[in-house]
Amino acid sequence: MLSSVRAGARRLPRYAGKVQVVRPMATASSVFHNEPPKPAVQTAIPGPRSKAALEKLEKVFDTRSMNFVVDYDKCHGNYIVDHDGNVLLDAFAQIASIPLGYNNPRLLEIADSPQMKSAIVNRPAIGAFPSSEWADVLETGLLKAAPKGFSQVLTSMTGSDANELAFKAAFIWRRTQERDGAEFTPEELSSVMKNQEPGAPKYSILSFEGGFHGRLFGSLSTTRSKAIHKLDIPAFDWPAAPFPKLQYPLEDHAAANAAEEERCLAETERLLASWPQPVAALIVEPIQSEGGDNHASPAFFRRLREMTAARGVLMIVDEVQTGVGATGKFWAHEHWDLPTPPDMVTFSKKAQAAGFYYRDDALRPDKPYRQYNTWMGDPARALLFRGIHDEVARLGLVERTAEVGRYLYGKLEALAARHPGEVQNLRGRDRGTFIAFDSPRREQVLARAKAGGLNIGASGDRAIRLRPMLVFEEKHADILIDILETAIKQ
Amino acid sequence: MLSSVRAGARRLPRYAGKVQVVRPMATASSVFHNEPPKPAVQTAIPGPRSKAALEKLEKVFDTRSMNFVVDYDKCHGNYIVDHDGNVLLDAFAQIASIPLGYNNPRLLEIADSPQMKSAIVNRPAIGAFPSSEWADVLETGLLKAAPKGFSQVLTSMTGSDANELAFKAAFIWRRTQERDGAEFTPEELSSVMKNQEPGAPKYSILSFEGGFHGRLFGSLSTTRSKAIHKLDIPAFDWPAAPFPKLQYPLEDHAAANAAEEERCLAETERLLASWPQPVAALIVEPIQSEGGDNHASPAFFRRLREMTAARGVLMIVDEVQTGVGATGKFWAHEHWDLPTPPDMVTFSKKAQAAGFYYRDDALRPDKPYRQYNTWMGDPARALLFRGIHDEVARLGLVERTAEVGRYLYGKLEALAARHPGEVQNLRGRDRGTFIAFDSPRREQVLARAKAGGLNIGASGDRAIRLRPMLVFEEKHADILIDILETAIKQ
After folding, report:
1. Which of B54, B57, B62, B352 to mutate to test the interface with A (most CBs of A within 10 A)?
2. Is B109 left (phi over 0), alpha (psi -120 to 50) or beta?
3. Which keywords belong to this entry (chains A, B) (predicted)?
4. Could you confirm whether A318 is annotated as catalytic?
5. pTM higher than 0.80, yes or no?
């Protein structure tokens, strides 16, 4: 934690996680009066109209990664409608980034507000000419949604640049402490313009094997999920620690899993102590998502917090995919019961806005313009995040997602019992709907599920990851299981 | 250019710049019926209400770089209105990023359209599930606005990440050619996961001293404008060539300036030939903006094009600040009469959307998912850019800006003649309103101009840069000159 490098460190109270108020209410699907009752697939996917649209698009934009083409105006709630009129239950949700269902009526109201229109046409350079509403938008939105203990934010545009801004904060913090009040030296000022030490120090960020933190040059240097993301791109010489490879079901492998976590912790400690480029911060996902839905125990993360605090290394928790409710807590790291909060928490995706939270003035650079750019985020998306957070609170969607997740997990356990060779290493118990399993014939299962009206995603080498929205309910879970079982049995 | 490394390079026709159709019409200010007639300043800036708002904001967001707080709903056209009711003529325009005036009525219509609202609440992962309208939005917007010869685009979020995507395209292109059809080797696949060669090659991007290309880790490694942007941030060991330091007025220093450009070209060539980390691409701004409004001749840029083409190095033109009309061409590089277009052109700011244009299929990676991320741009901003481009064409704003720029430049020349010690090195003749000069007492002049009702910006160590919007007219130029002269004389 921040204060450890300095003498006279102030102590922070034990962190007990964010308190969630449970409100009894109607089901969330009451919001979507026109949500389809079930999937309906009439053509191959992509069908002829989707294919024609992709052919046209291919001339000006690379389409090789595209699944199908969507008529977004026809999508409602949990259902996505493709350009051929096929209706699919969407448990992928734009790579886990749609929070409250397609064409959510409350969010459409916000999109129709005068504030939103002004934010779109009068986009400010926030760092120079903020709107008179900016403090209010932050306080009633991004900061109201902040993890407990976090009182400040730096806004950005995507998860990838949010992580890079957090890295920059860590490097500046570290060197500022080492400088101990001294001004920049002439040598620093000249060497940095040549990208050389000491002005551009060879410091590092530690990440974990299998982790994904974005694809810009700094964030990609911490991403370790798949080679295809990284090949041919220059990278910084930064360390990667092993992330636990747990065996499932957890209750049958408690001792082996504990030993595996100890092995990873010991190697992390060794890297922090010995990496030639001093480690300014460690970054970790609560659940490695792109890397294959890899979990670790709360105790593992508590140990990371203790280890980084003891060494004066900052701890950045990347909640870009796990944040905003899907794990059954608003922020996934609330599951850990940490002794002190992380130093920074990054967010994007379902928040629609992006940035990092911090809790200590020491993470503001000592001088202005060190963390600065033209736009510094997007007020339009900050308005949207405020509306998302309000709606999540109003409908109790975090608690609902925890409930629905338990229901879905139970159904998947039963499915795995019926088809043990097809549903392996089920994981995500008590993590809301943030559930995954391994599938030996994954590509076939995904294709058949899609043909059956279920859009789901993959992660890692063989995982199927479920990333439904926060308005996903028991009735949707039933449909998902039915389609999945049919796909598996084919 | 692309084909030079390969045998059998196809030849491209000589590039004559984009043809602009001049349309006779009413003045652009007829669009803003409620634009204030002149500035009106009642309080110090920031005034008491702005200060109170900044104090509140400071608790949750770093405010040290902020000028004043704005009531955007009260701003119209070229005038910005602060939270104390002060009305200023805005010739800075949110760091050159507002194209068509505050609360532009046509853009407000677009913000109010069903398409925009859908784009806001149903934000797609474009690379996986594009909207059925995406091809049309690109073809009638971003690509209609593209520089001549550019038929493809990769969208992003900001100028900084647009440049990084262009760098990645260059690195992948280079290594793919060297690989010559072979698959990735096991050594590449394993080394890249450790951020090591050969999978993560030590290749480089050449930029110019004084250049600014963004502040993420890759783009910051090419930024060479100010130390404060770079200090304490690790950087890649990439080369920087000198950028010409021209003497003004140009007509009095033709021989010295030509020699200076030759010196810089020779050093660029030497770096391209000798830098230990092979140079995949060169990136250059048409006018170095953040670095102090540094110009070079069209001949200089033609030579860069020839040099890079001959060496199989890609040429990226960073039009983030110069693009979208302010120089009197839609794209500033149209002033150069290049023998062949650049390989990539990056854009953001006044386009509101961001990304890079390219013209050759070879800049699409050989495999999908190599240039990929969750959102891959923002359809909401692509809709806005389409509206901006349509409005620029409808009102002939590029041609108008060229005219107004000539008028403004003439006025500044006269001002410099009256106050030769205060207005030095005037530059930007025939570059629309993209004009700057050096001011020995810059901070005082800027403060007095602001007190007089004129918001203008600084760049480099001593430049004042004018970055009015495309709806800036002769009458606004008159007001600007009056306030500036008063500020200078004080």
Report:
1. B62
2. alpha
3. Aminotransferase, Pyridoxal phosphate, Transferase
4. yes
5. yes
